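Office hours follow-up: a student asked to see two folded examples consecutively, so here they are.
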Amino acid sequence: MFRTKRSVLVRRLWRSRAPGGEEEEEAAAGEPGAAAAVAEPRAHLGGGRGCCPGKPGRGGRAAAGAEAELKALTHAVLKRLKERQLEGLLHAVESRGGARTPCLLLPAKADSRLGQHWYPLPVLLCKVFRWPDLRHCSEVKRLCCCESYGKAHSELVCCNPHHLSRLCELESPPPPYSRYPMDFLKPTDCPDSVPSSTETGGTNCLAPGGLSDSQVLQEPGDRSHWCVVAYWEEKTRVGRLYSVQEPSLDIFYDLPQGNGFCLGQLNSDNKSQLVQKVRSKIGYGIQLTKEVDGVWVYNRSSYPIFIKSATLDNPDSRTLLVHKVFPGFSIKAFDYEKAYTLQRPNDHEFTQQPWTGFTVQISFVKGWGQCYTRQFISSCPCWLEVIFNNR
């Protein structure tokens, strides 16, 4: 009975593997040029290297052989796990990371060979259950909920694939569609300005750049929170500002065992079909985490998110980029050290507008910019404004 249950768990796990990846395994085992040809369109489509998931490969003899090798290796690894570990891994995989699941601690030096490459166990399980195109451990980042977070050298390492995220790198030039003029260059009496109310009940008309720091921070020198979050539907803010004290915050619409800022509990009067459709796609939402090197955003949902932050781009540029972050990817959305070094230009238009250096804007599902129908984030159906405490 014991072995039967284990074998059932192993079969269920294999059936829950991520689709695709055969084409890339074939390319990786062949000529280097073939692997480059597979990876090249990915960098172009994503707007940042590593930010775009690949398309499933087509079958063939080589692909079938790679699939068989991967299956044999995966089964060999899974059969070494205890029944309790198999159940925890299956729960993580079937819930797509939505449920809180324990770490899967395995020997750190137990690498496995697949084709011409050796993979650490965390990378191997991430290839099987999340990203078939994953190549190296430098492409992933541990989430703060993981026991192995921040531990560089340890005998045991967590191999739960949903305790890691894929890094969204920004080394490649973004596609032209994602570049747009700074929102806050528009005068405050323009029709695109956003009516916003603060916690004190006052109402102001601000450019789509967002709320100013002085409106949302309580008192000078206040250190009770490190950021506040505002949720918007188009030009209307929904609910009150959410003050964040804990290092990590889940912002979601529907998350199993969710604990944090639940957008589904807010009362919205917006009857727009598009808003309601996008709202239903927020799902697991995002995870906002304050770490040593800055603030990271992890896309837990099943759809892309779009991020604008002054610290993601060249400080000398008069345009900011809207970065597209795919499901399962993380991006360092805010860098405190860089934000403090940014200087407001001496341009008259800048001096008349609130400085948004300590603000990050995040849109769910829908992007905005020059080549979108939505020029400003205030036209996006569902979006967030994260204002950081700079004191």
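And the second, which I mentioned at the end of office hours:
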Amino acid sequence: MALADSARGLPNGGGVSPAAGSGAAGSGAAAAGGWSTFPEIVELNVGGQVYVTRRCTVVSVRDSLLWRMFSQQQPSELPRDSKGRFFLDRDGFLFRYILDYLRDLQLVLPEHFPERSRLQREAEYFQLPDLARRLAQARAAAAAAARPAALHRDGSLCADEPPPPPLLGYLEAEPLEGGGSGAAASAPSPTASRSPSGGPLLTPSQSLDGAGGRRSGYITIGYRGSYTIGREAQADAKFRRVARITVCGKTALAKEVFGETLNESRDPDRPPERYTARYYLKFNFLEQAFDRLSEAGFRMAACSSTGTCAFAPEQGGPADDKIWTSYTEYVFCRD
């Protein structure tokens, strides 16, 4: 027998307990059994992030995925982690906003929140249509506000549009010799203000690649590693894998380069123009990070490394072995 639409997407594929009968009476018995066997305080493991909340919160929106899981199923039917928490394989960082919405049915996001599209996808997964609709409206409003000034087909500004502000870093041109006037005299000169290298003086957030609209800036990636060297030196070297690759730099640049492979859980609400040193990557391969930076137009500008040594007996190892611990940073820049 085919499952009803309301049962799709649930763990084990159904909303009725095996002990319950069939028909309306059986469904009611399953719902009543689910309410009686779930604890009042539930612990959720969402993608590795642990949340503790009341059961009435997760079932506050009828016909949502969480409502069917925690009111139409038995606890034994839901997946759990090693510590007995109910497990959901979703984005643990974004689930905090899903839970906030379930508490009072209000959508409140940080002022600079770049993950609206991903949060909308989470809302659609948890079958919260009102939240998904609000997020879609907010995205549409943000896109309309960021839309550039309307242009005529010949490239000139429309009559009702104000002229754009002059580029930062340029000086106003001085009047031409011989009494020159007009647009040539009043327009800013691209050579009026130059850096020592001959390029125009731009603010750090402005792009030097006008065609691609890319921003210049720096990104530093670092990692800690350790290895053990025995009596035969490098022949006996035992390396450990890189545990974590950290990312330092401007938030907008880091997200542009690494996208969804960037773990922002330690600094989730950082505005795009601010700097952070708390991001790290979801993968452990330096070459993969180098490839992404190269594809984004970055080049390595500098690198440095430092290390310490300790004898292995202090760590319970062989007497002649030495344990080296190092920290290495690579600085990349894009002009």
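Two things to take away from it. The first strand starts at residue 41 and ends at 46. The radius of gyration is 29 Å.
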